[in-house]
Amino acid sequence: MTRPTPLSGFPEWLPGQQIVEQRFVERLRSVFELHGFAPVETRAVEPLDQLLRKGETSKEVYVLRRLQATPEDTSDEQLGLHFDLTVPFARYVLEHAGKLQFPFRRYQIQKVWRGESPQAGRYREFRQADIDIVDRDEVGLHYDYELPLVAAEALAGLPIPPVVIHTSNRKLAQGFYRGLGVEDPAAVLRIVDKLDKIGPDKVVAALVAEGLSDGQAKACLSLAEVVTPDASFVERVAALGVSDPLLDEGLAELATVLSAASELAPGLLVADLSIARGLDYYTGTVYEGKMRGFEKSGAVCAGGRYDNLASTGTDRFPGVGISIGVSRILGLLFGSGALSASRPVPTCVLVALPDEARRRECDRIAVALRARGIPVEVAPTAAKYGKQIRYADRRGIPFVWFPGEEAGAGEVKDIRSGDQAPADPATWVPPAEDLHPTLG
Amino acid sequence: MTRPTPLSGFPEWLPGQQIVEQRFVERLRSVFELHGFAPVETRAVEPLDQLLRKGETSKEVYVLRRLQATPEDTSDEQLGLHFDLTVPFARYVLEHAGKLQFPFRRYQIQKVWRGESPQAGRYREFRQADIDIVDRDEVGLHYDYELPLVAAEALAGLPIPPVVIHTSNRKLAQGFYRGLGVEDPAAVLRIVDKLDKIGPDKVVAALVAEGLSDGQAKACLSLAEVVTPDASFVERVAALGVSDPLLDEGLAELATVLSAASELAPGLLVADLSIARGLDYYTGTVYEGKMRGFEKSGAVCAGGRYDNLASTGTDRFPGVGISIGVSRILGLLFGSGALSASRPVPTCVLVALPDEARRRECDRIAVALRARGIPVEVAPTAAKYGKQIRYADRRGIPFVWFPGEEAGAGEVKDIRSGDQAPADPATWVPPAEDLHPTLG
């Protein structure tokens, strides 16, 4: 075969980058578990009608067909790859409700797929890390600040630029538009959602084209321009002189969220009334996290409250969730050279091989070192020692172990400093910072 | 919507089972890294022509199409979901060869998909954990025993029945058939591969139907019945009186593998000359791991040496690999009730909420406990304490924390024993065995 070429929109990392992603995911997982979130994985596919039930992403679905399926073969439902982890989770909750305890806290870290035309930064396959809490009938408002704070805590422990979670409330915006006398609040939301991309002038123009008066359009823009680090947005909105009961409800909910967040973790959340979120299943609080220095690249985490996503005729499971765009964050930071691992292999020690006949002895040195948690490889061939040291050097392996003439004896060399000293495989330990690759 | 129902062939675990899978994967990952394998993930899709290039699984591929693709939309190559991790890895090696160091050791733990008719135990979506070593032009024979021993070591640390890796060599069987005067050794391999499923009589009948004489068919069966814990299979084969240079090469290679394995880790590998492996990219050593008590359920890990899978006109990267069927092992053990987690949530402590107004205080207790790595939730509502204790009990959360009247004071109750004692959130630690869910 000829040398294969990359597929646009399907990112693949080199091993050093994969080590970074692995550490990244471990950090998220560990913080999620510290907060009592249990792991869930859903299958990659959902029936197509489920995927098309909500939101505006229907055009982005990949549909599956069995290569050998015949026209008469109608046994398969139409299946599509999931495009997020919220819709599958809602289905999972309904399917397994009888075996779950509510409120149910879960995290889910998986790939999702969107069959869109790839552009810069737009992936067709990417990893998300979601946390959600769902409950029967009603889910407490305190989760509206708990969830983004857990996500922010998880991200804050990583060597990445700070992420601030911009927060708003659907009711606030919808009530405001209704109070203004706008006919189709959803259409306005969709236009205002583009503020970051198209700028204020084009937003006003699009709103006027939608049928709003100049005054209405400018009021919508003024609302979207309110950004405060605490609950002071309430006065800013009051000054705009619009009143509506849904607006009041949204203001009160968002004030509760911002007050708690600014007390518990100052600076991680801001109220930003431009935030709308495209998917239409959100019904209250909504989030978009932006990473410092990459604000123009869009949200690195996002979510909100959905009161109606998971329901049958008899059961309803409202929820609050937030999703971290793992691949998006990594793609941005790898792209700008801002994040890497100290070496592209886990190996800490290469055991040099003096002679192919002595491989078993070298294997035993490796076993002794591994028994104390030290990642070790034995050299692939009994090449000249210089070549074996280059093998380690090219991979960033910090130590080379030279077996002695007698079993048990030996020396270990730090190939960065050149220091070499006698060592016993049963007791030697590397400096803690060299044991595993580190991120930076 | 109505209550959703499961999709046949797409297993989904409950959270307690997902915790088991998570631990399982962490164990594999940690052993793989101890042996210097670096992580790789490939995209879920490959160009269809790549997937159909080798082997007999072409009929099992899921092909993708964008839902909104138009007939004129020919920009997309035909893409299919990968059905294993070896074919994508071979493509990855060729694509990124210039940026990798050889020999290249990688592990890869991902879902794969096969669009087959689901039967008992046959999954359409499942997780595999693969390790492979590839090198330029040639890859050392010592990897043929290193790889299965790493897989066996990883599995041996899990609370599952022992896995024995049955090992053979394609050259041995093919040389034997050629020495017998059989015309199509590949066809014979495919029939003998079914020995476990259809039994010796049907194998002989199928071989005769293929054109073999009765004597040839019985000799093929005799070869397949050779199983030894060490290199003594060599004499057993010699006694069958067939000679061929390729047979001798296969015998020598397999003897090297078995001698080393029986010295380094007695009992983990056996020579089993019935092993053939269906996929036709293997060229030498082949493996099939069987789990005690589940031998009839087929291989729980499998692999082999492939000298020709990854090559362009100018470059060739032979390799050796083995793949652990994570979903298959879990499915078998969950199905027989033989493996579970001690609780279905990570939470070790539930902080009881005396009054909604005191939530912030309870949040701070949780923060203090989490700072020392203890997984904690705060109760969802200020229900009566009896109800809050039931919340913990239903989830298997071992401890409930009752905030005192004064900030900082409080008591912690082990709800299994009923023991309750004053405790300080800044210093209290649970018994080590209660900190995280355990497997059993």
TrEMBL record, chains A, B:
It comes from the Bacteria. GO terms for biological process: histidyl-tRNA aminoacylation. Gene3D superfamilies: Anticodon-binding domain (3.40.50.800), Bira Bifunctional Protein, Domain 2 (3.30.930.10). Keywords: Aminoacyl-tRNA synthetase, ATP-binding, Cytoplasm, Ligase, Nucleotide-binding, Protein biosynthesis. InterPro entries: aa-tRNA-synth_II, aa-tRNA-synth_II/BPL/LPL, Anticodon-bd, Anticodon-bd_dom_sf, His-tRNA-ligase, HisRS-like_core, HisRS/HisZ. CDD domains: HisRS-like_core (cd00773). Its EC number is 6.1.1.21. Residues 415-440 are annotated as: Disordered. GO terms for cellular component: cytoplasm. Signal peptide: none annotated. L-histidine binds at residues 84-86, 114, 128, 132, 277, 281-282. One of its GO terms (molecular function) is histidine-tRNA ligase activity. It holds the Pfam family tRNA-synt_His. Residues 28-344 form the Aminoacyl-transfer RNA synthetases class-II family profile domain. PANTHER family: HISTIDINE--TRNA LIGASE, HISTIDYL-TRNA SYNTHETASE. Belongs to the class-II aminoacyl-tRNA synthetase family. Homodimer. NCBIfam families: hisS. This is Histidine--tRNA ligase.
